[in-house]
Specification:
The chain is mainly β and 1327 residues long. It has 14 helices and 66 strands. It has a 9-stranded antiparallel beta sheet, covered by helices on one side. Strand 9 and strand 10 form a beta hairpin. Helix 6 packs parallel to helix 7. It starts with a strand and ends with a strand.
C-alpha cells in the first residue's frame, strides 16, 4: 500500500524490498509535514534552532523525515496526510512477513557452535543485541558505548543528530542512568518520579543509592487503568504530548560470515550472499528504525516481533568487507587501521519509540498502560539471500493403532503419528522467477536462474523428524519429489510452496501435559546445480522446530485432548516484573511455569496478548496447555473498534502474526481472538482466517456470547457465536449460572461446545473463596470443563521507602490520573513471585491423585484414585502420617506402581492400635503422593479416622493441662473477691482479675510477671478484603454488592456499649466430669452500638462519605468471666444481634496481650491461613508460628491470617521456648503427653475453646490500623504494640466479589444469637 502522496513522489510500503533500493522505498523521497493545526506547537516543543526529526508527520516546522534522495541527502517536504502513528491502516512499513523460526534458539545455537563452525555448515549467524550480550567479550558484535537512551516529551522534539552517523558530543544528550535492553523507560527510577525530584537526586527502588540528575529531565511514570484509557482523545488520535524514547546503539560487526558460510573466504559470489535481518521481540507501542542515517522501517503491536531487512545498510568490519557494503548498498567506512582485521567501523542504530499510537486503542488491557520501550530482546541474524526457508508449519497428530483393554486403560495404547507439513521457500526480492499458470494438480519445481553464472539452480527441501534421543524417525529424509515413497499420503508442490501429509513409521509417544514428549522436525534447503550431466547438492539453510504429536477435538460438549476430556485447570497470565515492568526475564518466566506445575495448574491463557516465545518453549517442555490470545482489547471502546473498517487490517495483522509465529508449539491447543472488544464483523473475519489456516486447534472468544451491543450478561443462545468461538467461554459466571447452563440451556440448544471459563475466581487480595464449590460443580456436570483463574501475578512495582522497607506501588502511586488504584493487584502470587495461600487451595483441588478411606473394624483400606488421563502413578510414591490429637504418632509409605489412568487401587491399613484409644481422641491419617524424582509433594489428603468429641476431649485437655500447670506452680489455691464502685476484683495467690463497672474493660495479670491480658472486647469488624470493597474506590460505598460501605455506615469499626450492668454471682464450671464446683463469676450485660464516623480514615476513599452520626443499635451482650483457684479463667460471651442485620464481617472477641507473647503453637486447621469458603486444603494438626512483625502477605493491607477449627492455642514468650512442637512425637497414645511437652518450661497463655467452631487470628495490629493503611510499609510495629488475639465464632467468607460473584449466602454472617466460650489458662515458670 502507499503511505501518503506528495506533489512529485509517493512513499511506498513493501515487505520484501528490491536489493537496489533502500528497503523498498523508491530512489526519491518526499517528506511529509505536520498537520496544519499542529505546526503552531513547534515554538514550544523542542529547540527551534535545531533540525528536528519528522516521523512522517510530526509537530515542528523544521521537521524532517530522515529518508535519503539519490545523493543520500536529507530533504524537507510537506503533506496533509495523517500521522503514521494515528493511522490504523498502516500496521508497519518495510516490516517482513511473520514466520515461526525461533530466533532466540538460533542465537543460542550459534553462540554454542560458532567456535566449531566448519565449511558449509548451515548455522546462520545470529547475535543478540541485548545489553547483557553486548557486554560480553565473547561476541562478534561489539559496542563501546552500549545502548544509550533519551526521553523526550513528544515525537516533534527529536533532534536530527540522534540518527546522524557522526554527531558531535555537544549535539547529543542522553539519560545519565545506564539502561539495559530489554527495558521499559517508565520503570527507570529517574523517569517514574515527578520532575521536581529529577532535578535533584532521588532514591532508586533498589535501596539508598543516589540517582544522578537525569539528563532527560522528563517524568513519565507508569499508569494503570482498567477499562478507561489513560487519556481522553478518541481513536485514532493520541495525545499531542506523547512521550518518545530515542535509543541509540553504536556497534561493530567483526565477522564477515554475514555474507558467506566460510569466514576465510570473502567471495562476493551472488549465489552465496545472505540477507541480514534485524529482529525486535516487542516494542511498545509504535517505533521507527534508522540504521546508519537511513530509514529502515516502522512497526506497531507491542507484543509481537517486527523484523526488517537491513542487508543494504549494515557495515561489516572484516578486512575484505571494510570498504564495501555487505549488500549492494555502498557507504563510506571510517577506518583507523588500513590493514587490520578489526578496525573501528561503527554502525549507528537508532530506534524511535512512541508511547501512544492508534495501536494503543487495540491494547486496552487491564494492566500498566503505555509502558514504553524495547521490552523484549533484539537480534541480528543472517539467512541465505537468494533462496531460504521462509517458514515451515507442521501439524503432528495421532491415531490409535490398537484398542485399549478395559483392565488397563490407556496403558497399552499404541499411537501412530501423522504429520501435515506446509513449507515455503523464500527468495531475494531481486531474484526474478518466470511465472507459470497453475491449472492442473501438477508439481512444479522451484527453479531460479542466476545472472552471475548463467546457471539454473533447482531448490529442494528435505524433511526429517528426530525423537527425544536424537534418533531419526524416517529411514531417509522425506523428499516430496519422491512421489513413490510409501509414507506419503498426499503431496503438493507449487514452485516455492510445498505441502504434504506423511505417516510416521512405527509408533509415537503422544504429547500431553502429563507426558510432554517432544520430537524435532528439521527441514533442509538444498541447492542443486547441474553442470552438464553432473548434479551438485549444497545445503544452504536449515529450519529446526520442536513438535509434539497430539490431537484436539470438540464433540458432545467435550474438549478432547488425545481422545480424553481433560479438565482445564488454568490461569490467566500477564507479563510482569516488579522491577522491570513488561521486560520479564527468562528467569521470571521459568519461575512462573515451574510454580504452575508445582501447584497443579495445567493450562495458561496468555492474557491478553502473545507472550515471549520462551514461555511457549517452556510450556512445550514442561507440559502446559496454552490458549494463545491476540493482542486485541478495546474495553474502553467496547462496541466501537470492532465495527470500524479502518481497524480491520490491524486486527487481522495481529492475529496472523501471532498464529504464524506460534504455529508449531504443541502446547498451544487454541487461539483467542482477544478480550473484551465487543463482537462484530471484524471478529468473524479473524475466526475465519484462523480456521482456514489452522483447523487443528480451537478458537475462542468470550464476547461472542454477549448481546450485540454492550457488555451485558451472557447470551448463550446467540446463533452467530459459532462464527467466532468453538467453546463457550464466559467470564465470572456464577455457580448457579454454570449449573443452569449444564442442566437446562445446553441440552435445550443441543449445544455441542464445552463451557470453559476464560476468567473466574478473581484473585484480588485475600480472595479465591468458593474455589472448591466451583470445582465440585465442574467435576459433576457434563459439558463443564474447567477454566482460567484471574490472574497469575500481582502487578505491583517494587519501591523502597526511606527506612529501607520494600513495598509495592499500584495505580495512583505515581500521581497518574485517571487510575484504578489496586485493581491490577489480583494475582495468585505476589509481585516478587511468592505464592499466596490461595495457591495451596487450588493445588489441593487440582491434584491428580486422591486418597479415600474405607473402615471396617480393625482393618481399613486406603483407596488410591488416579485422576490422570494418560499416565500411571509409577513416578510417585505414597507416604502416610498418623496423627493423634494433632501430634505425629507414626509414619510409613507404600508403592503406587501399576495404578492406570482413571482407575484406582487399594492399600490395607491396620487400625488395631487406634481402636484401643478413647472415643474422644481425634485421629487423622495424612497421605501424600510424592515425586520419586525430586521428593516434591504432588497430592495430599487428610483422612478422618476418629473425629473425637466436641466437648469431652476438650475437657480432658483442660484437666490435664491445668493439672500439669498446677503441679509446677503452687498447690495452695484460694480466691479472694473484692467489690468497689470501680468494679470487681478477683485474686488468687498468683493472679488478679479486674472488671470495671460502667464499661467493658477487663484486666488480667500475674503478680509475678505483670499483665497477661489487657482487654477483652466484642469484635464485629474486619479490615475489609478487596472483595468486601476496594477501599480506594469511593463509588463502592453505596454499592449493594460490596458490603464494606455498609459496615462503615453501621459503625462496626468503632463499637461502644450502653446500659452496662456488672454483677457478681457463682456458677458451676464443669472442667472435668469428676470435678464440678461453683466459682465466683463476674457477669456483664450491655447493649452493643456502632458509632459511624468515629474513626476517620483520611486516605481511604470508600470511607470518605462516612460522617459522625447517631449510634446504631446492633444487639445485646452478656459476658461471664469466671476465675478458678489456680488462676484459670472461663469466659462465656453471648451475643444477640438484630435479626435484620445481614452480611456482617464477623462475630467474635478480641483479646489484647503484651507484646512479649510473640510465639504461637496451636492445634487447628492449617498450616496456612484459611476461611469458611477457602479451607479445603487446610488440615488439622499442631503448628508453630511467630507472630509476624509486618503484614506482607498482600500488597494492600487487609484481613488475613485466620485459621478455622481451633482446638487450642498457646502463646508464649520467645525466649522461653523449649522443645519445638514440630519435633514432639507421642511416646504413648494418651492426649496429655504431647501438650505437656509444648507447655514445658514456657511462660505463656493457653486458650482452649469449648468446641471446635472457633477460628482465630494473632496479629500485632488492630483491624482499624490495617484498614487505614494503603501499603505494607505503613504498618511498622513498635515495642509498645500489644499482640491481638481474635477469636471468631463466625466470619464472612472471602468470595470473589471484587470482580465476580460475592460470597455465597452459606458463608455470610447474619444477625442472630452467637456464643463464644473458652478457657484461658496461664502458664508461668520461674526463670
Amino acid at each position: 500500500m502507499a503511505l501518503g502522496n506528495s506533489r512529485a513522489i509517493r512513499l511506498e510500503i513493501s515487505c520484501n524490498p528490491p536489493a537496489n533500493s533502500i528497503q523498498g522505498v523508491k530512489k526519491r523521497f518526499y517528506l511529509i509535514s505536520p498537520r496544519p493545526n499542529e505546526a503552531k506547537r513547534s515554538s514550544t516543543l523542542g529547540n527551534a534552532a535545531m533540525n528536528v526529526l519528522d516521523l512522517n508527520a510530526c509537530y515542528g516546522s523544521h521537521a524532517t523525515l530522515l529518508l535519503p534522495d539519490d545523493n543520500n541527502k536529507f530533504n524537507h517536504g510537506r503533506s496533509n496526510t495523517p500521522n503514521v502513528w494515528e493511522n490504523p491502516a498502516v500496521t508497519g512499513i518495510h516490516r517482513l512477513p511473520p514466520h515461526s523460526r525461533n530466533v532466540a534458539s538460533m542465537a543460542e545455537d550459534y553462540r554454542r557452535f560458532r567456535q566449531q563452525r566448519q565449511e558449509g555448515m548451515p548455522i546462520p549467524p545470529c547475535f543478540c543485541l541485548d545489553s547483557s550480550f553486548l557486554e560480553s567479550h565473547d561476541n562478534d558484535i561489539t559496542s563501546s558505548t552500549g545502548w544509550r537512551f533519551r526521553l523526550l516529551c513528544n515525537p516533534c522534539s527529536i533532534p536530527i543528530e540522534y540518527v546522524l552517523p557522526q554527531p558531535t558530543e555537544k549535539d547529543l544528550r542522553f539519560c545519565n542512568n545506564k539502561i539495559a535492553i530489554p527495558h521499559n523507560w517508565t520503570m527507570m527510577p529517574c523517569h517514574r518520579r515527578p520532575v521536581s525530584e529529577l532535578i535533584g537526586n532521588s532514591k532508586t527502588d533498589a535501596g539508598s543509592v543516589d540517582v544522578p540528575k537525569c539528563g532527560c529531565q522528563i517524568s513519565d511514570p507508569p499508569r494503570y487503568t482498567n477499562v478507561r484509557m489513560p487519556f481522553s482523545t478518541l481513536y485514532p488520535h493520541v495525545p499531542l504530548d506523547n512521550p518518545t524514547g530515542v535509543y541509540r546503539l553504536e556497534f561493530s560487526v567483526n565477522f564477515c560470515g554475514w555474507t558467506i558460510h566460510n569466514s576465510n573466504n570473502c567471495s562476493t559470489d551472488a549465489t552465496r550472499k545472505r540477507r541480514i535481518i534485524l529482529h525486535f521481540g516487542a516494542v511498545e507501542s509504535c517505533f521507527f528504525v534508522y540504521l546508519n542515517a537511513r530509514f529502515v522501517g516502522m512497526g506497531k503491536d507491542s507484543r509481537l516481533p517486527s523484523e526488517f531487512d537491513v542487508t543494504s545498510f549494515l557495515k561489516c568490519n572484516c578486512r575484505k568487507c571494510r570498504n564495501e557494503a555487505v549488500g549492494s548498498y555502498n557507504v563510506n567506512h571510517q577506518s583507523q587501521n588500513g590493514d587490520g582485521d578489526h578496525s573501528t567501523t561503527n554502525n549507528i542504530l537508532t530506534v524511535i519509540v512512541l508511547k501512544w499510537s492508534d495501536g494503543s486503542f487495540l491494547e486496552q488491557q487491564d494492566h500498566w498502560r503505555g509502558m514504553g520501550g524495547i521490552h523484549r530482546s533484539v537480534y541480528l541474524y543472517s539467512i541465505p539471500g537468494e533462496a531460504y526457508i521462509e517458514d515451515v508449519f507442521c501439524r503432528a497428530s495421532i491415531v490409535k493403532a490398537n484398542e485399549e483393554t478395559s483392565a488397563s486403560k490407556n496403558s497399552t495404547t499404541t499411537w501412530k503419528g501423522v504429520v501435515r507439513v506446509d513449507a515455503r521457500i523464500g527468495r531475494d526480492s531481486n531474484t526474478r522467477i518466470e511465472g507459470k499458470d497453475i491449472y492442473y494438480n501438477e508439481n512444479i519445481k522451484c527453479v531460479r536462474s542466476h545472472a552471475a553464472d548463467n546457471n539454473e539452480g533447482e531448490y529442494r527441501m528435505l524433511f526429517q523428524i528426530y525423537d527425544c534421543n536424537d534418533v531419526a524417525i524416517f529411514d531417509k529424509p522425506l523428499d516430496v519429489t519422491d512421489t513413490e515413497a510409501p509414507c506419503f499420503a498426499e503431496i503438493h508442490q507449487r514452485s516455492n510452496l510445498i505441502s504434504f501429509v506423511a505417516n510416521v513409521p512405527g509408533s509415537v509417544m503422544p504429547w500431553s501435559h502429563e507426558s510432554p514428549t517432544l520430537y524435532r522436525l528439521e527441514a533442509t534447503l538444498l541447492r542443486i546445480v547441474k553442470h552438464g550431466e553432473v548434479e551438485s547438492f549444497h545445503s544452504i539453510d536449515i529450519f529446526r522446530t520442536k513438535i509434539g504429536f497430539r490431537t484436539i477435538e470438540i464433540t458432545n460438549r467435550q474438549l478432547l485432548i488425545n481422545g480424553e476430556p481433560v479438565l482445564i485447570k488454568g490461569v490467566n497470565r500477564h507479563d510482569h516484573s516488579s522491577t522491570r515492568g513488561k521486560a520479564v526475564s527468562r528467569e521470571d518466566i521459568y519461575r512462573d511455569l515451574t510454580l504452575m506445575k508445582e501447584y497443579n495448574f495445567n493450562a495458561i491463557r496468555t492474557a491478553h496478548y502473545p507472550n515471549d516465545p520462551y514461555l511457549y518453549d517452556l510450556a512445550d517442555q514442561l507440559g502446559m496447555y496454552v490458549v494463545d490470545e491476540a493482542n486485541i482489547e478495546c474495553h474502553g471502546h467496547y462496541d466501537m473498534v470492532c465495527r470500524e473498517n479502518t481497524f480491520a487490517a490491524a486486527m487481522l495483522d495481529r492475529v496472523q502474526r501471532m498464529v504464524v509465529r506460534d504455529q508449531n508449539h504443541p502446547s498451544i491447543i487454541g487461539f483467542s481472538l482477544g478480550n473484551e472488544a465487543g463482537f462484530a464483523m471484524n471478529h468473524t473475519m479473524l475466526y475465519g482466517w484462523i480456521k482456514g489456516y489452522d483447523d487443528s486447534r480451537f478458537v475462542q472468544y468470550e464476547g461472542a456470547n454477549r448481546p450485540k451491543w454492550g457488555q451485558l450478561p451472557h447470551v448463550y443462545d446467540r446463533k452467530d457465536s459459532v462464527l467466532a468461538t468453538d467453546v463457550i467461554c464466559p467470564m465470572y459466571a456464577t455457580i448457579d449460572e454454570l449449573i443452569e447452563w449444564a442442566d437446562v440451556i445446553a441440552p435445550r440448544l443441543n449445544e455441542q461446545r464445552p463451557l470453559i471459563l476464560c476468567e473466574y475466581a478473581h484473585a484480588m487480595g485475600n480472595s479465591s473463596g468458593s474455589l472448591i464449590d466451583y470445582w465440585e460443580v465442574i467435576k459433576s456436570k457434563h459439558g463443564l470443563q474447567g477454566g482460567f483463574i484471574w490472574d497469575w501475578i500481582d502487578q505491583g512495582i517494587s519501591e523502597r521507602d526511606d527506612s529501607g522497607k520494600i513495598w509495592f506501588a499500584y495505580g495512583g502511586d505515581y500521581g497518574d490520573t485517571p487510575h484504578d488504584a489496586n485493581f491490577n493487584i489480583n494475582g495468585m502470587i505476589s509481585p516478587d513471585r511468592q505464592p499466596h495461600p490461595a495457591m495451596i487451595e487450588f493445588k489441593k483441588i487440582a491434584q491428580p491423585v486422591e486418597f479415600e478411606l474405607d473402615k471396617c473394624g480393625n482393618e481399613a483400606t486406603i483407596r488410591v484414585c488416579n485422576r490422570r488421563h494418560f499416565m500411571t502413578l509409577n513416578d510417585l510414591k505414597a507416604t502416610w502420617t498418623l496423627k493423634i490429637d494433632g501430634f505425629i504418632c507414626d509414619t510409613g509409605s507404600f508403592s503406587l506402581l501399576g495404578v492406570s489412568p482413571q482407575t484406582y487401587s487399594e492399600e490395607p491399613f491396620d487400625l488395631s492400635k487406634v481402636n484401643t484409644l478413647p472415643d474422644d481422641v481425634e485421629v487423622h491419617l495424612d497421605v501424600r503422593a510424592i515425586s520419586i524424582e525430586d521428593g516434591s509433594e504432588v497430592a495430599f489428603d487428610q483422612l478422618m479416622i476418629r473425629k473425637g468429641g466436641d466437648s469431652s476431649s476438650i475437657r480432658s485437655l483442660i484437666y490435664h493441662s491445668r493439672d500439669y500447670i498446677a503441679s509446677n506452680t503452687d498447690s495452695d489455691f484460694s480466691i479472694e473477691l473484692n467489690q468497689s464502685n470501680e468494679g470487681f476484683s478477683f485474686s488468687t495467690n498468683h493472679h488478679e482479675l479486674h472488671v470495671s463497672s460502667g464499661a467493658l474493660e477487663l484486666t488480667y495479670s500475674s503478680k509475678t510477671y505483670g499483665t497477661i491480658m489487657d482487654g477483652l472486647r466484642v469484635n464485629l469488624f474486619r479490615a475489609g478484603t478487596d472483595n468486601d470493597g476496594v477501599k480506594q474506590f469511593g463509588v463502592q460505598f453505596r454499592d449493594p454488592s460490596k458490603p464494606l460501605g455498609k459496615w462503615l455506615s453501621m459503625g462496626l469499626d468503632f463499637l461502644d456499649f450502653e446500659a452496662v450492668d456488672v454483677c457478681f454471682r457463682k456458677v458451676s464450671v464443669p472442667f472435668h466430669e469428676n470435678d464440678v464446683a461453683e466459682y465466683p463469676t463476674c457477669v456483664t450485660k450491655a447493649k452493643i452500638v456502632g458509632l459511624p464516623g468515629q474513626k476517620r480514615y483520611s486516605r481511604i476513599a470508600i470511607a470518605a462519605n462516612v460522617s459522625p452520626s447517631q449510634p446504631v443499635f446492633l444487639g445485646d451482650l452478656e459476658q461471664s468471666v469466671t476465675m478458678l483457684r489456680d488462676g484459670s479463667l472461663f469466659i462465656d460471651v453471648n451475643i444477640r444481634l438484630r435479626e435484620s442485620i445481614v452480611d456482617l464481617p464477623r462475630v467474635g472477641v478480641e483479646l489484647s496481650i503484651p507484646e512479649r507473647f510473640n510465639e504461637t503453637c496451636f492445634f487447628a486447621n492449617g498450616p496456612h491461613e484459611n476461611y469458611p469458603d477457602r479451607q479445603f486444603s487446610a488440615h488439622a494438626g499442631v503448628y508453630e508460628e511467630t507472630v509476624p512483625e509486618t503484614l506482607d502477605c498482600y500488597v494492600v493491607p487487609q484481613e488475613q491470617g485466620s485459621r478455622t477449627g481451633l482446638r487450642w492455642l498457646f502463646v508464649s514468650e520467645k525466649d522461653s521456648r523449649s522443645e519445638s512442637a514440630a519435633t514432639v512425637k507421642k511416646a504413648t497414645l494418651t492426649p496429655s503427653d504431647s501438650i505437656e511437652k509444648v507447655l514445658e518450661n514456657k511462660n505463656g497463655l493457653l486458650i482452649v475453646p469449648c468446641d471446635k467452631n472457633l477460628s482465630f487470628h494473632v496479629s500485632r495490629y488492630k483491624d482499624a490500623e490495617v484498614f487505614s493503611a494503603l501499603h505494607i510499609n505503613e504498618l511498622m510495629p513498635t515495642s509498645a504494640n500489644p499482640v491481638y488475639i481474635r477469636l471468631d465464632i463466625a466470619q464472612r467468607g472471602l468470595g470473589t466479589g471484587s470482580c465476580g460473584p460475592q460470597t455465597l449466602p452459606r458463608y455470610q454472617v447474619n444477625g442472630g444469637s452467637y456464643r463464644i466460650s473458652f478457657w484461658l489458662i496461664p502458664d508461668q515458670h520461674t526463670k
